[in-house]
Specification:
Layout (H helix, E strand, L loop, with lengths): L1 E4 L7 E4 L5 H13 L2 E6 L5 H12 L3 E5 L2 E6 L9 E2 L4 H11 L10 E4 L10 H9 L3 E5 L2 E7 L3 E7 L5 H11 L2 E8 L7 H5 L8 E3 L2 E6 L7 E3 L4 H13 L4 E8 L6 H7 L7 E8 L5 E8 L8 E2 L11 H10 L3 E4 L12 H11 L3 E5 L2 E5 L6 E4 L4 H11 L6 E4 L11 H7 L4 E4 L10
Parallel strand pairs: 2-15, 3-14, 6-7, 10-11, 18-19, 22-23
Antiparallel strand pairs: 1-23, 1-24, 3-5, 4-5, 7-9, 8-9, 11-13, 12-13, 15-17, 16-17, 19-21, 20-21
Helix pairs in contact: 1-2, 1-3, 3-5, 4-5, 7-9, 7-11, 9-10, 9-11
The structure holds shikimate-3-phosphate.
Length: 445
């Protein structure tokens, strides 16, 4: 599928409700499958990533029923699946599920294979395999990557000091801790998203959080509950940035999760835009005590380049493709450092964004752990999503302020996290053409 995004002819205006949070949807599906009884999920993200996790839980014996806008998951009694568990493009899916299954009592004696698409099979898994193995897990990787073969067996807890601020690694260990004997303690080098720590208590499991240490006592049983998934701030970032860039725009993004371990993008934007351009109106606490807000966005003048503080990187890790697109049209230079983790996401986001932005005439210098971007005019041109949903959406937004249309090949990938993206942009007044709709190639798109 190819998108053609035309330069905006007028301000963007209107209200949208961004799709459900991807991280929380994965956890709701996974915990629901592990939990005894029924879990009701409201606002589940119907994206390819989170559907893959839900399908994996179904293959493991959880019952899944769609009832209107809710999903009911009846879990607790897992069995070995008939074949490999395919997590598609989902890093969160494969890493959290591997941890959760590694010691699961009713699966002991079985052999489970967890795999995914070409991108997922190239992402590092040693970061979970090594510490899980220290808990007693039997996991065979393929040269440090998926496919992973897991033979569930008895685990013991332990104390882990992570080398990287990764919520996926932290969560994989805590979920393994649910079926381990004793206490599992995970110390992160810096804050990372804490959705697992917030949601497990809703399923009846105490998590002891002291600063950068999260711990739980195993074995522990989960009990089904109701989960209301807030809107995804990472998805909301695309219309948000579009509205900041298109002069005169004013939009409202409803029901967006603003968890403080995820709101780095708002902190970074505060240094790039006029005060009042992004207004956060706290509305309520969602499931697992997740703070939720309506965001009002106004374009109040030019965006400024920024030297982004490395401490904010883990708190905005998924927003860097969008921030790089924003930097391309900001006044002055934006410097990103301490972001080497971007190289092991759905794509090598530093290399891919550098290449694609240069195709649109943007001056970008690549660094091992980031990039330096000099803002200026963006040319019309044809770019490629490189198999990465967030790259596709970042480039699409740039088309609204380029000198002519921007065409994005491989836009099918957007369905990974934001299937309604084109509809939402159009609802705000953007002109977006879709070619070859519905066309999906099988592997490397
Ligand atoms: C996620 C954690 C982050 C993030 C990913 C979702 C999660 O990855 O990039 O999109 O749901 O835990 P890392 O924990 O590997 O940084």
């Amino acid at each position: 599928m190819r998108l053609r995004v035309h330069p905006a002819r007028g301000p963007l205006a209107g209200e949208i409700t961004p799709p459900g949070d991807k991280s929380i949807s994965h956890r709701a599906a996974l915990f629901g499958g592990l939990a005894d009884g029924e879990t009701e999920i409201v606002g589940f993200l119907e994206g390819e990533d989170t559907r893959a996790t839900l399908a994996a839980m179904q293959a493991l014996g959880a019952e899944v029923e769609r009832r209107g806008d809710r999903i009911l998951v009846r879990g607790g009694r897992l069995h070995a699946p008939n074949g490999p568990l395919d997590l598609g493009n989902a890093g969160t899916g494969i890493r959290l599920l591997t941890g959760a299954l590694a010691g699961r009592p009713e699966l002991r004696g079985a052999e489970l294979v967890l795999t995914g698409d070409a991108s997922l099979r190239a992402r590092p898994m040693a970061r979970i395999v090594e510490p899980l193995t220290r808990m007693g897990a039997s996991i065979e990787s393929t040269a440090g990557c998926a496919p992973l073969t897991v033979r569930p067996r008895a685990l013991t807890g332990g104390h882990f000091e992570l080398g990287v601020a990764s919520a996926q690694v932290k969560s994989a260990l805590l979920l393994a801790g649910l079926s381990a004997e004793g206490r599992t303690e995970v110390v992160s080098p810096a804050p990372s998203r804490d959705h697992t720590e917030r949601l497990l208590p809703a399923f009846g499991v105490d998590v002891d959080v002291q600063g950068l240490c999260a711990a739980l006592q195993g074995p522990a049983k989960l009990t089904g509950t109701k989960v209301t998934v807030p809107g995804d701030l990472s998805s909301a970032t695309f219309p948000l940035i579009a509205a900041l860039l298109v002069p005169g725009s004013r939009i409202l993004l409803r029901g967006v999760g603003i968890n403080p371990t995820r709101d780095g993008v708002l902190q970074i934007l505060a240094g790039m835009v006029e005060s009042g351009a992004v207004e956060v109106r706290r509305v309520e606490g969602g499931a697992g005590d997740e703070p939720v807000a309506d965001l009002e966005i106004r374009s109040l003048g030019p965006v400024r380049g920024l030297d982004i503080s490395p401490e904010l990187v883990p708190l905005a890790i998924d927003e860097f493709p969008a921030l790089m697109a924003l930097a391309a049209v900001a006044a002055g230079t934006t410097r990103i450092r301490g972001a080497e983790e971007l190289r092991v996401k759905e794509s090598d986001r530093i290399a891919v964004m550098t290449t694609q932005l240069r195709r649109l005439g943007v001056e970008v210098e690549e660094a091992p752990d980031g990039a330096t971007i000099v803002g200026g005019a963006v040319r019309a041109g044809r770019v490629d999503a490189a198999g990465d949903h967030r790259v596709a959406m970042s480039l699409a937004v740039l088309g609204l302020v380029a000198e002519g249309p921007v065409e994005i090949d491989g836009a099918d990938w957007i369905a990974t996290s934001y299937p309604g993206f084109v509809d939402d942009l159009r609802a705000l007044g953007a002109e977006v053409e879709v070619e070859n709709e519905g066309h999906v190639e099988v592997e490397e798109r």
